[in-house]
Give the backbone structure.
Amino acid sequence: MERLTPSAERARFRAGLITPTSGLAPGFAQANLLALPQEDAFDFLLFAQRNPKPCPLLGVLEAGEVSSPLLAGGDIRTDIPSYRLFRDGELVDEAPVATDWWREDLVAFLIGCSFTFEGALQDNGIRIAHIDQGRNVPMYRTNVDTVPAGRFSGPLVVSMRPIPARQVADAVRITSRYPAVHGAPVHIGDPAALGITDLSRPDYGDAVDFMDDDVPVFWACGVTPQAVVAASRPSLAISHSPGHMLITDARDLTYQVP
Amino acid sequence: MERLTPSAERARFRAGLITPTSGLAPGFAQANLLALPQEDAFDFLLFAQRNPKPCPLLGVLEAGEVSSPLLAGGDIRTDIPSYRLFRDGELVDEAPVATDWWREDLVAFLIGCSFTFEGALQDNGIRIAHIDQGRNVPMYRTNVDTVPAGRFSGPLVVSMRPIPARQVADAVRITSRYPAVHGAPVHIGDPAALGITDLSRPDYGDAVDFMDDDVPVFWACGVTPQAVVAASRPSLAISHSPGHMLITDARDLTYQVP
């Protein structure tokens, strides 16, 4: 596959290309977007501080800003392949450009994405089922509550990867080194303890097949903010479309600790 | 030394004891305090997000809150040994209780403290000069700017520990495992590159003696917010007095990543 730089990828999206971003610009961090009115920004910033595993902030664009060093020369309203518009917590539109929806008072939160640690897992010889099977990662709403902050509350959403029993400890060790992009798993094994009754029916993304010795391993997921928007119903919210992430100029390795 | 629980230590301070907290309640995280009016809270929360090495947030008490799970059953206005009051960036008072200064609209930020990783360094056989020499850690204002956010900007303040050359790599490895409490060093060696002209004249704390093979190692410091308050001049700010920290109920090991 041809490898483009993050800015070249963003230029393609700005020009109209709509595609999931998994595997693009390998080695560079991708990010979830959530933009909220300034009046809700303190509450969400506090929510992210209190819930660093599902909402690890890579950057924040203040009201009136549409670019940042994470997307040098770019525009947050156009440089993601696809956007979603929420009013009062309801998904009301999806489009490749968010410029018409944008307002001067919006604050844009860029939230880390597990694509970063998936590369590290693969580099360490751990296969990622949903990549091997050509599917989107399976994600589940849990019965675990996030820590509320101001007007924001809602359920923790997790992503799940089947990991061979002999590699679960390695998967923990490797992803623990990336606290800025969801970090260590939040749960290993028994899905029922999270309120997940059927792994074959994820709430977001696609189901994946298990091998005989695979253990389900659950990580906090960057889709949590969308579940929180649905639960907390801010007047306006703009997000990326799932799987269609912002490709940033930050290298994955920037977020690794020993 | 008698070992009290964090809540027992806080009760002594609430009853009027004024003492530096270094070495008290070993194994439990201590925290810097900065309380600001709600109108400045978003800007400072964003400042902390952008400057996680000097300002790693362990918790935030929203306006009207005076306790939190970090100080269960406690009161942030009384449970620190000594407080400082700043008006328009100027230090105007110091007292063992902040209740008379407190306002309903204050938001209290609890910021991680390097005492947490000092314990880990000592456990790994690395001696801490300022502890061995019975002094406060030396701290220096640098010529490195923090990343501004809203009304807040100012210089990075660093703490310095002389580390034997053969142990510098270990000190990096060990402190890197604590990204929530300043993490890895920001600079190793040559003080001049940070704009520090004389290690024997720190801007805060005490100078320490070097052994022959010691290298100066610099970590981002939780006193940075006080330098930022001086530079940014919010109308009101309340902090702890340097060295007189909040002793929290959170275990140091909570903040360790592999």
Chain B has two domains: 6-114+232-255, 117-224. Residues 38-50 of chain B form the longest helix (13 residues). The radius of gyration of chain B is 17 Å.
